[in-house]
Structures are given as C-alpha cells and as structure tokens.
Design a protein that fits this description.
Blueprint lengths: L5 H9 L4 H7 L6 H6 L10 H8 L3 H9 L9 H19 L3 H12 L8 H21 L8 H15 L2 H17 L3 H11 L7 H17 L3 H18 L2 H17 L3 H13 L6 H15 L6 H18 L2 H17 L1
C-alpha cells in the first residue's frame, strides 16, 4: 500500500477539481483519482499528458507529483494467474447475465496498480476494460460516464500502446455495435462494411461484421439490401463451423424478410433458427423470443401469441437488468399498437 500523495492532492485542488470531477474530465471511473492520491494505483502512460494539462503542470512536474508517496508494487506471477482466472470467470458470468458477480470480479483488478511498461499487466488491464464494456453494453449503458463506450475507448488505448492490432480492430467492431444500438444505423453499417474485409480481424469476426451490415441496413429499412449481406454470412458461418452465429444469422434473415414483406420466407428462416436455437442463456432466450414475437405480430391470427412472447421477454429483461432489450421490446409494442 502506498502513502498519500499530498503534492498531487494540492495540484488537483489548485486546479479547481474534486476527485470525482477530475476523473470525469479524464474519462475515468469516479474512484480512480482517489486511488492515485492514496498511492494504490497510478495513471497509465496514455492518460498522463491529459492529466498534466488538467493540473496545469509539465510532464516532469506530474512525474514528481506521482513519485511522492508512491509504492513500488510488483505483481508475482501467481497474482497474474489469479487475474486471468477471474477474467475467465467474468466471461462465464456475462454469458449467464450474472452482472453483479461479473462487476465484483472486475472491480478486484481495474483499480489496482499496473506498472508502466509491464506488458502482461497492461494486457490483462485492457482485457478487463473490454469485459467491463461488454457488461455495460449488455445492461444498455451505452454512452456517458461509466458506459460501454468509455470502457471500450480506454481498452482500445491500452491495446494500441501494446501494439495489438487485432484487439484494437475488435474494439472498433464493438464501437460500431454501440452506434447501431444507439440508432445510428447507416453509419454503423458503413463501419461494419469496412471491418468485414479488415485483415486485422479473424475470419469469424469479419463474417460477424458482414452479418451486422445486414442487421444495421434492416433496421434502417433497407431490407432487400440487408438480405444480400446476411445470406453470404450464413454460408460462411457454416463453412467456419460456427453453429451459434449461424443460428443467429437465420433470426436476422427472418426479420429482414419480414421487413421486405415476404412473410413466407421469414417463417422458413425463423423455423431454422428455432430448430437450432443457440442456447438457453437469458440473453439468448430474450433475443429469440423478441424476434419470434415481432414476426408473429405481422399476422393478425398470431398476434396474441406474439404479444405473449414479448411480455415474457420483457419480464426476463427486467429480471436480469437488460435495459436495451427491454427498450427494443417496448419499441416493437408501440409500433404494433400504432398500426392496430
């Protein structure tokens, strides 16, 4: 544990910041500056120029402030192994929508000291931030402080510092997903289109980007165009032996056919998705039931069944804190009520 860095505290107060407002200025969690001032952690290199400007000091002056009272901490290899194990546990928790436990595991590590130049520590820190972004995305916290966009941006800066082009490209893909989720469908489709041929990504991620071009175009009302991207993605997922992505792609195809007015083809595509459902995790159930309910609302004879499916999906979304899914379901209901 370190001692208090009184010089850093004085500089922060002289610049007119509280710990919380300085953290927000730097795009960080509100507890981070307090960790620095207690010597429990220190700013990563990519944040230091902005911190120096905020405090009105030179780079050398900032290093002197940080050196005061700082503890020299080295992580034993066993500590890194524990960190790695915890991140694997986080990934499992996110798959089950166990958000509270995932956040608890991430909080063990994201506020701790990551020594400058420590490649393994930086990599694990970047992975932690990526998972934190995934958590916030699943909860529907897309923009602003403590959001998925903020966490992905911080993770991207870490992986750029490490020279990990693949991880950076994956984060660019996630940021495009946030644009789509925020309603910016055409810009998201263009970002997906570029990433679908980006050699920094592996074949699965490039195919997912191609599928998501279709998803974004379908949401933008360009369903015929969407189908031309979704069908090749289905064939590629089959070639890659990715059954979960393949099944999800049929859900997307069904909704694009529905939007294009072809309910017969929509039903055929969705039956494939039902017959090969990707799993029974809450998020997977909600997405499948939402798509199914949306499709059933297209026919007055099945509309009541569609509404019941949406009601159940909404209840599950509320139970697990999946607010974006809940908003999407509410939007489908409102659109149906306007047409009814």
């Amino acid at each position: 544990m370190g001692t208090r860095r009184h010089g850093l505290i004085r500089a922060r107060k002289a610049a007119g910041y509280t710990q919380e407002t300085l953290a927000i200025e730097l795009g960080l969690d509100t507890t981070t500056v307090g960790q620095w001032e207690r010597g429990k952690s220190e700013p990563l290199p990519y944040k230091r120029p902005k911190l120096a400007r905020a405090l009105g000091v030179t780079s050398r002056g900032l290093e002197e402030l940080l050196a005061e009272g700082a503890a020299v901490v080295s992580r034993p290899s066993a500590d890194y192994e524990t960190w790695t194990d915890d991140l694997d546990r986080v990934a499992v928790c996110l798959g089950r929508q166990e958000f509270d436990l995932a956040k608890l595991l991430l909080d063990r590590w994201t506020g701790r000291l990551v020594p400058s130049g420590d490649g393994r520590g930086l990599y694990l820190y970047g992975r932690s931030l990526r998972l934190l972004g995934d958590l916030r995305q699943d909860q529907g916290v897309l923009t602003g402080p403590m959001s998925a966009r903020q966490s992905y941006g911080r993770a991207m800066a870490v992986f750029r510092e490490l020279g990990s082009d693949r991880r950076v490209a994956q984060l660019e893909l996630q940021l495009a997903v946030l644009d789509e989720m925020s309603g910016n469908h055409e810009p998201a489709a263009e970002q997906y289109r570029q990433l679908a041929t980006d050699t920094r990504l592996d074949a699965r991620d490039r195919t997912r980007a191609q599928l998501w071009v279709g998803t974004a175009l379908s949401k933008a009302g360009r369903n015929a165009d969407a189908i031309t991207f979704i069908k090749p993605a289905i064939r590629q997922f089959e070639a890659l032996e990715e059954p979960q992505d393949w099944s999800v792609a049929f859900q997307k195809l069904a909704l694009a056919h529905r939007g294009d007015g072809d309910l017969s083809q929509a039903g055929v595509a969705f039956q494939v998705a039902l017959d090969h459902r990707p799993g029974d995790a809450p998020m997977q159930r909600v997405r499948l039931d939402t798509a199914h309910g949306h499709l059933l609302l297209s026919d007055p004879a099945t509309a009541d069944s569609g509404l019941k499916l949406l009601e159940g999906a909404a209840a599950t979304s509320t139970q697990y804190g999946m607010m974006h899914q809940l908003q999407a379901i509410s939007g489908i209901r409102r659109a149906y009520e306007r047409q009814a």
